[in-house]
C-alpha cells in the first residue's frame, strides 16, 4: 500500500499514484498523519525561495526519510473554508484557533492558499493563472538548529506538538508480506511451518529475513499472551509475565523451545542464549531465565501500554486490555470528591462522576504514552527522559530505541528535557491537560486553578499508591505502578461520535465512558458504543494459541 495520494481539495479523497492517468484532472500529494492525535494533511517539499508544492513522491519520500529542512506539512485551514462540513471537522484542531507560532510558514498580514491545479501558493481567493478557486491552507514547518548542525525537520505535529509523530500513510511490501507470513505460521492448518522468501539481492535477502523474523515474533508474542488469559477474569500486570512463562512451559515441556519462542531478535547474540540453544536440551539456566523474564516483562508492559494502540495490538483488536484496579481507583476518587470542592472554589458544583472521569482519562493517557514504571526504565526516569539511558550500552536487555523513536512519556512537574508530559500549565501555550480539565470539570477554570487541580490529583494518586514518584534533580517524574494494573480479556468498544477515536475498555467500566468527552486533544465529541464491525479476524488469530517463530 505505497504511493497513496490524497487529493488536493476541500473534501478528503484518495487515489493511487499509479492511477494518475485515470485522474488527469486531479492533483494529489502524499498524506501524513499524527500517531498521537490523528491530525492529517499533505506532505510536500518547498524549496527555498520557491512557492511551488513539490508533487514528486520519490523526492518527498527521500527528503522525509532524511528529515530534510525543506519538508512542509500542509493542511486545510478550517477557519477560512466555506464548507460547513470541513469547518466542523476542523473544530477539534482549531477551536479555539491556535496562534501560528512554532515556525509555520505565514507572512504578516497574508494567509496562504494553494491552487489545486498548479500547486502554487497564492494569497488570493482565485489563482490568477488557472482561474479557479484556491484552497485555504496552513503550512507548518519546524526544524532543529542546535550545535551549528544542518537544520532537520522535527516531524512535530502542528496540533498536539509531539515530536517525531508524523508519518506517511502507507505500507511497504516487506510489512505486508510479514503480515501474510505471520498468519501462515499461526494457523493450525499449516502442519509444516517452513518458509522460503526470494528477493533480488543478497543485502535485501538478509534484511528481509531479519525483518520477517522480528514481525513473526510480535504476532507469536501476542498469541502467547492471549492464550494465557483464556479462562481468566483478570491477571495483575505484576504477575502476568510469570503466568505466561508457566503456561507455555507446561504446554511445551521444553525449555529450549520456550527460550527460542520468547527471546526477541535483538538478544539472539547473547552468549548465554546461543550456548543454550546450540547445546544439549536441558532446563533453562538461572541467569538466562532471569534475563528472559525481565525482557518479557518489558514486552508485556509495552503491549498493554506504550504500543497498545499501534498496529494489530491485542487492545486495538479488542482481544484484551489493561486497566487500573477499579477498587483502588474508586477509593482515590472518593477522597478527591471531598478535597477538590473544598480547596478550589470553582469546583463546588462538580460531581464525583466528573472527577472520576478526569482521573480515568488522565491515567489512561499516561498508560498509553508508556508511563508504566518498569525496572529497565529507572535510570531513564531519574534522568527525566534522557534518550541515552535507553540505549543498549546502558540497558542491554531493553528493546532498541533510536534517538528519533517514540520515547516513553511519564508525567513531570518540571519540563527539564521536554520529553515527559508537563501536567502544569506554563505560559499561553495550550496543553492536553488544560484542555482535559476544562472539558471534564468546567471550562471556567483559570490556569492557576487547573494547576492546583492537577497538583491535588497527582498528590492523592501518589499517596494511594497508584502512581510512583521518581525524583530527578529539581524535577519529579510520576508513573503508573504495575502493582495496580490489571490485564483482562473482557473488552468493550467505544467510538467518538466526532473524530472516530476508539478506545478499548471493559464491560464493567463501560458506563463510566459512555457519553463522556473524547480523549483526543480539543475534540468536542462524546463516546458512544462502537457498533462498527470489530476486528474479529485478528481476535480469532490470537485465540488460536499457535506460537511458532
Please give a quick description of this structure.
By secondary structure, this protein is of the alpha+beta class.
Task: Give an overview of the whole structure.
There is one protein chain. With 549 residues, this protein is α+β, with helices and mostly antiparallel strands. Helix content is 35%, strand content 14%. It has 16 helices and 22 strands. It has helices at residues 57-65, 84-89, 91-94, 173-186, 202-229, 237-252, 255-262, 271-278, 286-306, 326-343, 352-368, 378-382, 432-440, 447-463, 510-513, 536-543, and strands spanning 4-7, 14-16, 28-29, 31-34, 40-45, 71-76, 113-114, 121-122, 135-140, 143-144, 152-153, 166-168, 235-236, 321-324, 411-412, 421-422, 467-472, 475-480, 485-488, 492-496, 504-505, 527-529. The strands form six sheets. The chain has a seven-stranded antiparallel beta sheet with strand order 8-7-9-6-5-4-12. The protein has a four-stranded mixed beta sheet with strand order 16-15-18-17. Helix 4 (173-186) packs across helix 5 and helix 13 packs across helix 14 (447-463).
Q: Which structural class do the helices and strands define? A: alpha+beta
Strand content: 5-15%
Strand order of the largest sheet: 8-7-9-6-5-4-12
What's the end-to-end separation, in Å? 26 Å
Low-confidence stretches: 83-109
Number of strands: 22
Largest sheet: 7 strands, antiparallel
State the shape.
globular
Percent range of helical residues: 25-40%
